[in-house]
Amino acid sequence: MSFFFVFFTFFIGSFLNDIIVRGYVFGHLRDKINEKWIFLISVLLYALDDSWNEGFSLSNTLFSLVLGLSLTYAFYRTRSIWADTGIHWGLNVCYGIFNGMLGSTEGGIFITADNPNPPPFIELISYILPLLMFLFLYSFRKNLIINHTYHQNIKQKTLNTNGVKGFES
Question: Which of 32, 45, 78, 135 could be 83's S-S partner, Cβ–Cβ 3.0 to 4.6 Å?
Answer without folding.
Answer: 78
